[in-house]
Amino acid sequence: MNEIEKLIQELCPDGVEYKRLGEVCEILRGKRLTKKELTNDAPYPVFHGGIEPIGYYTESNRPANTVMIINVGASAGTVGFSNKKFWSSDGCFCVDKTNRTIDKFIYYYLSINQAYFAGKVRHGGIPTLDSKVIANFEIPLPQITIQEKIVEILDKFTSLEAELEAELEARRKQYEYYREKLLDLEGKEGVEMKKIGDLFVFKNGLNKEKQYFGQGTPIVNYTDVYRNKSLKREQINGRVTLTESEIDRFRAHRGDVFFTRTSETPEEVGLASVLLDEIENCTYSGFLLRARPITNLLLPEFCAYCFSTHKVRREIVRNSTFTTRALTNGPSLSKISIPLPPLSEQRRIVEILDRFEALTNDLQAGLPAEIAARRQQYEYYREKLLTFKRKTV
Fold it and tell me: Of 194, 233, 291, 323, which sits 20 to 30 A from 126 (CA to CA)?
């Protein structure tokens, strides 16, 4: 930081000039391709409506090291950067720099202002960000030497975070391997395969008009199940106003397993989450199926891992129906078999997988905690490095 401060004091003691982005760069709009023109075998990624490629194409229309700003869809206002040649569709603006700016400096400065761009997105139909919003946005223009030094420092932070993310991904794959191996119990001594329908009874959730949501008793919602394989009290933030009769009919208890009943894609139908806490007057949404245990042969914690294995997930998808949406129901899920080891073996498996889970997903421990700390440090220095005194004319 001292080196940057010295450079700023030496090269721009009176502050830094700010210019509208459209005055120093050209804002380019891409050209849309048809689905037939996209492939997975071509060399150049195609960006449209997001910073993940929608496919690949045989040609590029943008050079490497280009800043992009998504202008349509749910990701409108998101700032991205490609260090490879690519094809920009019309859902993606690109910034063509001049000799007064460095691409990566523009990217870092725009990325700390994504909330501004998101706030300027027009809604009411397809979310859209106008090019004039980007063109009129002011950016600081310190000397190239300062821009280069700032980019060098921020690149080191992002490189370190990328290394940690790669290590975390390797750990997750290792964890996934052991989870599958530990839970591949069919044919093992002392393990019985049981149909889900012999262990649980199913019930659909409740449906209420939107004015009843926002206050009242806790409710397990679709997104709670979608995001978590197990649920504790602090993860359930939804509230709904119900009668005593409705609470009694749709009550949730510890050990209940909730399944996503419907989805846009097969991969997301029948995702399961197990309630691990007893929560007073808790209920569950009509977009979910509740599977309530009718035996004491399964630990809830074991269920949470068991229903997330690839083998069980494949069976859930195979037994679902597909029309305009993917659907599952109690009879379909009841046909699926799961392993039923002794409770002592279930506890042993849970203890092992809990340790892996902490290393790969716990934000308070292991690599996730280190990544969160590095990200916080990076964001602090990024804000500090990219905040300049404005030069008065």
Answer: 323
